[in-house]
Input
Amino acid sequence: MTEKSSKTEKKPDAPGQAAQETPQQRPDQTTAPAASAADFLSMHAAHATGETYTPTGEELKQRNKRSLAIAGAIVVFIVLVFTITVLRIGGAAG
Output
């Protein structure tokens, strides 16, 4: 038994004409119609289950530490940008 290594199959259009390559579809491939963005969003919409989650005390402590670290990084970034801006403006004026 020999298997085709090519994924295209050549078929003549009419007698006497040269064969043209046509793509061959595998049996596991199906062609689905293209969905619009609204269809895509509605298919993956979240559904309320009524479940709630209450974090433990340790999780709350970790969340607070993470929030403080992010807030500190933002403050440092703002101070850095302000300082650089003041120095560049001051250097250009003097």
